[in-house]
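Tokens in:
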């Protein structure tokens, strides 16, 4: 199929797939488009991110819901334990396949020496995201959290050195890096420190008023998400400090 269509046609098919809510096909088309040597534009990266979210979130939610059902099963329902677990594993395998496909494409694109700094940060972000998604599920791979940390760390360092604090790619990667610390590595202090550091830089960014790209909707949305997350994490920390668990 890749020899029959050009890159732009796969991107257009991804847009149509999104409108028709065929999200597994949407991510498939974007993965094929990413295999062409041409670097993604900012609009293409947004579409790729949307495809990843649309294709993975339902499966992540399904696995979480099934885990909740399994925890609440009473003795009369134990006979269904195996079939429910098999169903969860089926969904899990679908999620693993999507993440592995994303990781393969991300690595290939990162090996392309002609991609921009923004694209490099973007691919490191989705690489970290994919490993983080795998880490949040019980798929028996203990290394995925470390792999996510390494991808995010590299992207974070590159973004700090090359992208302004209000760059949407830098904000998005930093936010997801913080989520890794909070939800997977269980280090809320680190999550808040990293997040607050970029928030302070972004709010005090001298060029913000004169930089259209810094003030676009994507950047503002990414900053608001980071601010909301850090506020929520700090609130939970203060609640835990005021009401420590009884020993």
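Residues out:
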């Amino acid at each position: 199929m890749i020899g029959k269509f050009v890159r732009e046609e796969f991107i257009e098919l991804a847009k149509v797939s999104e409108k028709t809510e065929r999200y597994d096909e949407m991510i498939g088309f974007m993965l094929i488009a990413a295999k062409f040597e041409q670097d993604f534009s900012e609009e293409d990266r947004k579409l790729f991110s949307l495809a990843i979210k649309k294709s993975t979130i339902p499966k992540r939610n399904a696995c979480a819901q099934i885990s909740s059902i399994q925890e609440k099963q009473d003795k009369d329902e134990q006979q269904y334990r195996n079939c429910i677990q098999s169903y969860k594993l089926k969904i899990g395998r679908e999620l693993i396949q999507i993440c592995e496909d994303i990781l393969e494409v991300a690595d290939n694109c990162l090996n392309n020496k002609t991609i921009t700094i923004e694209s490099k940060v973007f691919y490191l972000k989705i690489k970290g995201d994919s490993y983080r998604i795998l880490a949040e599920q019980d798929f028996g791979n203990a290394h995925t959290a470390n792999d996510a940390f390494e991808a995010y760390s590299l992207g974070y360092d590159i973004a700090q050195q090359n992208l302004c604090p209000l760059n949407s790619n830098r904000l998005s990667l930093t936010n997801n890096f913080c989520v890794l610390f909070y939800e997977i590595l269980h280090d809320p202090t680190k999550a808040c420190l990293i997040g607050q550091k970029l928030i302070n830089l972004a709010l005090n960014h001298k060029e913000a008023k004169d930089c259209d790209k810094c003030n676009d909707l994507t950047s503002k949305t990414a900053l608001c998400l980071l601010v909301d997350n850090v506020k929520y994490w700090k609130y939970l920390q203060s609640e835990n400090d005021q009401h420590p668990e009884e020993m």
